[in-house]
Design a protein that fits this description.
Family (chain A): Belongs to the binding-protein-dependent transport system permease family. HisMQ subfamily.
Distance between the termini of chain A: 28 Å
Strand content of chain A: under 5%
CATH architecture of chain A: Orthogonal Bundle
Radius of gyration of chain A: 24 Å
CATH topology of chain A: MetI-like fold
Subcellular location (chain A): Cell inner membrane; Cell membrane
InterPro entries (chain A): AA_ABC_transptr_permease_3TM, ArtM/GltK/GlnP/TcyL/YhdX-like, MetI-like, MetI-like_sf
CATH class of the largest domain in chain B: Alpha Beta
Membrane topology (chain A): Multi-pass membrane protein
Shape of chain A: flat
Main location (chain A): membrane
Number of strands of chain A: 2
Oligomer: heterodimer
CATH class of chain A: Mainly Alpha
Structural class of chain B: alpha/beta
Largest interface: A-B, 29 and 34 residues
Distance between the termini of chain B: 67 Å
Number of domains of chain B: 2
Strand content of chain B: 25-35%
Chain lengths: ~290, ~270
């Protein structure tokens, strides 16, 4: 009961406790960490259990002279992992490209130049409200597979086109993250900077953006996990990534129906193992930054 | 704005035009100059093109592609294709040659340069339960129940011509499941698919393909439109494959029963020489 009371007071400062900012950091954090940690364990157990159940049934179904589902996954593990690394690579590169472009676009969207602001706003809204798969198709079929500039041929393989395709929505979302973070800072920061004779550019780079970074990191990491999971869409346009390989492995194993669930379950597990820690870390950062502001 | 758009459009179409001009330069010369032949093959169609655990694409069609590269004296690069992108890849020049289980259709012949004679032929056949003893020819199927895939063009033909009843299901998994459950005596489907199934222990212990294929559907290999010289080379190569029995030996190598078409072509061209 007492801890309940104190957590309430930490969230909604009562007159008895007028300065919650001065409360020890550990108190609030520890109280919130417990339920999160329990959820993690629960999730982990659930996923592992699910995997075991799927593999178990598959094992029961496989006939004589056939590899069990686990056997099949072990046999193809190196190939499937190379596919998964490719997903990671595509996600990292499109995130890098999209972040840089999105930073520029976001700063454009808060510019004092009307034309620049409107153009940046238009681009942001256009790419933010387009389905990712449509943008991917767009990049796939509009970009030629090679460019010839001054006699030298620059090849443009499918996965590079996929990187561009995914970078477009990342750019637009990043633009909104930047704009939102800048807008969320109290206007006092701008006014104080102005009174100290900082120019607009100086204020932006030396005062506003450094403060924005920690506000932008959690949503940015969230965006990354979304991109990582979206990369499997590249299989639809013919990039040989994990999901494509899963389908091909399934075919190579004779298209046994009992292998479908374990194989796709394995893909799910890989993405979960990769994305969930990022998700947890994001939440931790969110909590920390929230308390310090 | 309109002016700018127009300018952009003109620039884009010029770029496209330049691309097409470059692509229609003789591909055979380009391949020899680069020293690499790029062939589009399937990677999900056992045993015609599929992955091995190292990730390499293997099978009958990769072997055919390797033979073409050997004849040209160049290295081989395989690009995995699917039905939805193989024609585009060929038109774009991303692949030089397509050997990807492509059925011969008039609309396809309009957009790519098909190589005659067809190098292979699929047919319609039945994955028949080994328990069924009294079926040795198609006419014996009269009054029997077969499972089929709904939408397959030959379901109706088989039932009117041979008097079998065809129970149609969606896709290929459900009819196979029904077959295992004993709802029918066999699965009526593409012969190449049935052959692929019979490579696995799950199917070849209780099922077989005792009947000859009917209603042949030839497969074509193709080059980009306008590549007459390369097409001629591929025609000669195909005829040589048939003459030497290369395709029949490939079928045996990958564990499938040689098709009537391959055997017939082998006989025909052996005699012709």
């Amino acid at each position: 009961m007492t801890s309940h009371m104190s957590s309430l007071s930490a969230v909604n400062p009562a007159p008895a406790n007028p300065m919650p900012v001065l409360l020890p950091f550990q108190l609030g954090a520890r109280q919130r960490r417990f339920p999160t940690w329990r959820a993690t364990l629960l999730h982990g157990c659930g996923i592992v259990g699910l995997g075991l159940v799927i593999a178990g049934t598959a094992h029961a179904q496989s006939g004589p002279g056939q590899l069990s589902a686990i056997g099949v996954i072990i046999k193809w593990f190196p190939l499937l992992m190379s596919g998964f690394l490719f997903n990671v690579l595509i996600s990292l590169l499109s995130m890098a490209l999209g972040t840089v472009a999105g930073l520029g676009l976001g700063l454009g969207a808060i510019s004092h130049n009307t034309l620049l602001r409107q153009v940046a706003w238009g681009i942001t809204q256009f790419f933010r409200n387009a389905p990712w798969l449509v943008l991917l198709f767009f990049a796939m079929f509009m970009i030629p597979f090679q460019f010839t500039i001054f006699g030298t041929t620059i090849p443009f393989p499918d996965w590079v086109k996929a990187v561009i395709g995914f970078a477009l929505p990342v750019m637009a979302n990043m633009s909104e993250i930047v704009r939102g973070a800048v807008k969320s800072l109290p206007s006092g920061q701008w006014e104080a900077a102005e009174s100290l004779a900082f120019s607009r550019r100086q204020t932006m780079w030396m005062i506003i953006l450094p403060q924005c970074v920690k506000r932008m990191i959690p949503p940015w990491m969230n965006l990354y996990t979304l991109v990582a999971m979206a990369t499997v869409q590249a299989s639809i346009v013919g990039v040989t990534e994990m999901l494509t390989l899963i389908a091909q492995v399934h075919a190579a194993e004779g298209g046994r129906p009992d292998l479908l669930a374990p194989l796709y379950g394995f893909a799910m597990l890989c993405f979960f193992i990769y994305c969930y820690p990022i998700e947890l870390w994001t939440r931790r950062l969110e909590r920390r930054f929230h308390l310090h502001q | 704005m309109g002016f700018l758009m127009k300018k952009l459009l003109i620039a884009a179409s010029l770029a496209l035009l330049a691309g097409t001009v470059a692509a229609s330069a003789d591909v055979l010369d380009k391949v020899k100059e680069k020293g690499v032949l790029v062939v589009g093959v399937k990677a999900d169609y056992k045993p015609f093109g599929f992955r091995d655990p190292s990730g390499a694409i293997v099978g009958i069609e990769p072997d055919l592609a390797a033979d073409v590269a050997k004849r040209l004296g160049v290295k081989l690069e395989l690009v995995p294709v699917v039905s939805a992108n193989r024609i585009e890849f060929l038109q774009q020049g991303k692949i030089d040659l397509m050997i990807a289980t492509t059925s011969d259709k008039p609309e396809r012949r309009k957009v790519v340069l098909a190589v005659d004679p067809p190098y292979y032929s699929d047919a319609v056949n039945i994955l028949l339960s080994k328990k069924v003893k009294n079926v040795t020819k198609w006419e014996d199927l009269k009054g029997k129940v077969l499972c089929g895939t709904s939408g397959a063009w030959y379901n109706k033909d088989v039932s009117t011509k041979y008097g079998a009843e065809v129970k149609a299901f969606d896709g290929s998994e459900k009819p196979l499941f029904a077959l295992k459950g004993g709802e029918c005596i066999g699965y009526l489907y593409d012969q190449t698919f049935v052959q692929g199934k019979l490579l696995d222990a799950e199917w070849n212990t209780d099922f077989a393909m005792p009947l000859p294929g009917v209603m042949e559907a030839p497969w074509i290999l193709a080059v980009a439109p306008g590549e007459e010289k390369f097409a001629k080379f591929m025609t000669d190569t195909t005829i040589d494959w048939m003459k030497t029995g290369f395709i029949v030996s490939e079928e045996k190598k990958w564990g499938i029963e040689p098709t009537d078409y391959s055997k017939r072509m082998n006989e025909q061209y052996k005699k012709g020489s």
